[in-house]
Amino acid sequence: MMQPITLSALIMLGHTSLKIFDLVYTMTGKGSGFVTDVPGIFMFETTFQGNHYAQGATISMVMLIMVSLVIIPYLIFSLRQEVEL
Amino acid sequence: MTRRFNPARIGIYTLLVFFAIIFMVPVYVMLVSSLKTFAEVQDQSRLWAPPMSLNLESFVAAWSGIPEKGLRGLAQNMLNSVNLTIPATIISSLLGSLNGYVLSKWKFRGANTIFYLMLFGMFIPYQSILIPLTQTLSAIGLGGTLAGLVLVHVVYGIPITTLIFRNYYTAVPTDLVEAARMDGAGILGVYWRVLFPISLPGFVVVIIWQFTQIWNEFLFAVCILQKPELQPITAALRNLSGSQIKEWNMVMAGTLIAAIPTLLIYIITGRYFIRGLLAGSVKG
Fold it and tell me: Mind listing the pLDDT tens digit of every residue in chain A (85 residues)?
């Protein structure tokens, strides 16, 4: 009974932590020696503070692909399950 | 009642209380720090100690700023947050409710596929749409304005509001819709006369959710609004802590001020929240 809800919770938390930005950015930034650098901050600083728009766009695309790898199978799985119901 | 004090239950409660305390520790530090004076808050050894005297200066300073030190208060930013959150919440809830209604009660070919495509909008990392987003906003003349930020939050609120309302309306018997159609109501008539009046629990959930999300949102706010006097309170809080000497008592006071509206809305409508969540998700 716990299996479907655990999967949903894992997916939710997984994609949230993959794209976390605000807490890390306000508390430590990328940190000394990049210890708290996350993709979200990397993209933001490259694009809006370094003005390297092309590089920033590339980072954001990599983030999108990483999230899609988890999310798209999950959505297709949910869609199929709903059709069966 | 006889099993009330068995060891397993005591163990569970001990564990729960332990984690509840861990969860509340940052709130405690925030509260005691905000009540200290600047001299006291700098003494790191007294971080955990309660304040020596109750001192509300930090709240005044966080609210109205210290002009001679070049610090802006949060008063204007609080107003910006209200002006941003309330319209965005209302518009995205209404749109989500209409979407959820059509996707659950007027199912057309491919409605499910469209719904899941919309859900993808909930999961995409917002960084991946930031550059086109800022360019689009400046192209339509909304760049750097609060109205532009409202538009962004409405658009990115639609997936989650649609999801909640679709699940909520799926639980409503289709007979109700069919009866209204027999009586000659059109697609909007059914919505307005039948489903809208019974959607209050759904609206409570969506409004709490959207209000909290939009109020706490940070990335869009700092990317779209650069002028400090236009920024919502989350972005302004960062400026408050961004100066050279961090006045932690003031930062903590500002954080508390920023947290009050979401706390209030949760306390006032919280009991409907749980009820609405159950109404939307549990079938039968």
Answer: 778 788 888 888 888 888 888 888 887 777 778 888 888 888 888 888 888 899 999 999 999 998 898 889 888 888 888 777 6
What is the pTM assigned to this prediction?
0.85
Our CA-based measurement puts residue A55 at a distance from the nearest CA of chain B, in whole angstroms, of 11
Question: What is the C-alpha separation between B19 and B29, in angstroms, rounded?
Answer: 16
How far is residue B135's CA from residue B175's CA, in Å, rounded to a whole number?
47
* Chain B residue numbers touching A43 (CB-CB < 8 A): 127, 130
Of B116, B123, B238, the CB nearest to A79: B116
The CATH superfamily of B75-281 is MetI-like (1.10.3720.10)
Exposed, middle or buried, B245 (CB in 10 Å: 0-12/13-18/19+)?
exposed
CB atoms within 10 A of CB B264: 10
Helix (H, G, I), strand (E, B) or coil at B185: coil
Among residues B59, B15, B10, B52, the alpha carbon closest in space to that of B247 is found at B59
